[in-house]
């Protein structure tokens, strides 16, 4: 299944770092390629307990006493690569470490004396930002293509074809027994086809406790399956030679469209809502399609949990991978649901849905940071006196030096009034990791986080910052 051992960040190919002439990094052991999800610096004799997978671990070998065990532990933790600074402790990379990394398949980079670890980390941040922008542009183009395909006279094969083109592989609609009903793209190998049928059984619609989607690799292909909503119990399956950042989002959009397009015998209300959603995907203004959706005002709910999406009395649900967004009509009251953490917006008019969506996302972040079952958006107060666009611009500038994991940690730490243990428990990391990250925030922002004025300003900025990623436990600095 999908690898959940690495941070959910856009990876950077190791080769992209090696080609940076300003860094002067040199690979001296291990495979030539790896996906770097983050950078971590440690001089501990055994950094294993503090690694979460996918890191480029940087060290000068201050406590390197057993190279064999050190390389084995770093590889076992799932680190992407090891960068060894040849000063001030060592003049060259120890030969025993080179041999150990080669044996354990761990890429080993020599960091020259002229290159600081900070420069390496800054380069990774820059490359990740570029990769993220590329991913967002690619996803936006794919969504437009899928929406246009859904509006064609024969929409199901058109959507499958568009998805296969965007993924560079095969896309098929599977029936309850795993038989292929419609498909597009080069057919997968028999081994991959068999693996896809097994994967489709994992997400079988209507099965209690089954996930909404699942991924795997088999027969040299990256495979994925997405359960479609509706009584026909269909599954969208994909197979491609490679899997790029954003593919899951693109396939998720296709699964929503196919769920609408394959629904049987819709009533007038369901048909109107489906038409409204497709028109929204095609770019029509929310105010124009609002009459088709039902009674206003609306409440947007963001939810994270396990199992079936929470039943909030609305059919307008987008769900997948333990995350759901629900559009609740008519100003209905939203209550907590077992197993789910909810963020609830203020009631909104049709033209305010985008703002309500952002409110619900912020409320969910506060709920997760405070480990509360439900948090509602709080209107009014000093924050409401500030122009949202000006506040967002200021927040972007103020928080620009911070990475997503640092922002997540800072938000949780501030929401829990600077409690180290409570923040560590909320994020699922060690309390020393929280201390290191908060200290890093203070250094990057050049701010005194013991100052209440500074804390207040940062908290308001975190509430106003647009486009920040949702928090995930397990991200590492």
List keywords for this structure.
disordered C terminus; disordered N terminus; globular; alpha+beta; five-stranded antiparallel sheet; 42% helix; 477 residues
* Overall mean confidence score, pLDDT: 83
Total number of beta strands: 17
Uncertain spans, ≥5 residues at pLDDT below 50? Answer: 1-7, 467-477
Secondary structure: helix percent = 40-55%
Largest sheet, strands/sense/barrel: 5 strands, mixed
Oligomer type: single chain
Q: How does the helix and strand content classify structurally?
A: alpha+beta
What does this structure look like?
By secondary structure, the protein is of the alpha+beta class. 42% of the residues lie in helices and 17% in strands. The chain is globular and about 70 Å long. The two termini are 25 Å apart.
Secondary-structure blueprint:
Elements: E1 12-13, H1 14-18, E2 26-29, E3 35-36, E4 38-41, E5 55-59, H2 67-76, E6 81-85, H3 95-103, E7 108-111, H4 117-150, H5 155-167, E8 169-174, E9 180-184, H6 190-202, E10 213-218, E11 221-227, E12 235-240, H7 247-261, H8 268-281, H9 286-293, E13 299-305, E14 317-320, E15 323-328, E16 340-344, H10 353-370, E17 374-376, H11 388-399, H12 404-415, H13 420-427, H14 431-445, H15 452-464
């Amino acid at each position: 299944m999908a690898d959940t051992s690495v941070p959910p960040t856009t990876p950077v190919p190791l080769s992209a770092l090696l080609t940076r002439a300003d860094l002067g990094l040199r690979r001296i052991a291990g495979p030539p390629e790896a996906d770097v999800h983050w950078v971590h610096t440690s001089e501990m004799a055994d950094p294993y307990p503090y690694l979460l997978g996918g890191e480029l671990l940087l060290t000068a070998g201050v406590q390197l006493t057993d190279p064999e065990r050190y390389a084995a532990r770093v590889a076992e933790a799932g680190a992407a690569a090891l960068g060894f600074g040849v000063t001030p402790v060592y003049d060259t990379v120890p030969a025993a470490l080179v041999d150990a990394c080669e044996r354990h398949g761990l890429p080993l980079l020599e960091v020259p004396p002229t290159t600081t670890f900070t420069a390496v980390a800054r380069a990774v941040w820059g490359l990740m930002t570029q990769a993220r922008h590329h991913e967002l542009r690619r996803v936006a183009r794919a969504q437009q293509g899928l929406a246009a395909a859904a509006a064609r006279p024969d929409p199901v094969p058109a959507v499958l074809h568009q998805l296969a083109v965007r993924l560079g592989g095969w896309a098929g609609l599977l029936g309850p027994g795993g038989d292929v009903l419609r498909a597009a793209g080069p057919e997968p190998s028999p081994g991959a086809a068999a693996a896809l049928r097994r994967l489709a059984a994992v997400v079988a619609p209507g099965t209690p406790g089954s996930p909404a989607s699942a991924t795997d690799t088999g027969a040299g292909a990256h495979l994925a399956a997405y359960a479609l909503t509706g009584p026909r119990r269909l599954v969208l399956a994909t197979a491609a030679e490679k899997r790029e950042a954003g593919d899951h989002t693109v396939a998720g959009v296709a699964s929503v469209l196919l769920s609408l397009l394959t629904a049987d015998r819709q009533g007038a209300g369901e048909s109107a809502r489906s038409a409204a959603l497709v028109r929204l995907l095609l770019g029509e203004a929310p105010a124009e399609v609002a009459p088709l959706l039902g009674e206003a005002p609306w409440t947007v709910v963001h939810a994270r949990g396990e199992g079936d999406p929470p039943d909030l009395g609305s059919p307008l649900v987008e769900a997948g991978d333990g995350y759901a967004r629900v559009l609740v009509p008519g100003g209905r009251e939203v209550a907590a649901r077992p197993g789910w953490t909810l963020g609830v917006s203020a009631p909104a008019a049709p033209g305010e849905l985008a703002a309500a969506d952002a409110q619900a996302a912020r409320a969910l972040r506060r709920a997760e940071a405070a480990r509360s079952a439900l948090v509602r958006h709080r209107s009014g107060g000093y924050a409401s006196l500030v122009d949202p666009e000006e506040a967002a611009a200021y927040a972007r500038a103020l928080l620009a030096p911070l990475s997503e994991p640092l922002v997540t940690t800072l938000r949780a730490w501030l929401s829990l009034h600077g409690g180290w243990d409570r923040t560590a428990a909320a994020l699922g990391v060690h309390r020393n990791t929280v201390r290191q990250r908060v200290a890093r925030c203070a250094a990057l922002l050049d701010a005194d986080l013991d100052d209440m004025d500074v804390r207040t300003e940062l908290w308001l900025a975190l509430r106003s910052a647009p486009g920040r990623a949702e928090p995930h436990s397990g991200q590492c600095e």
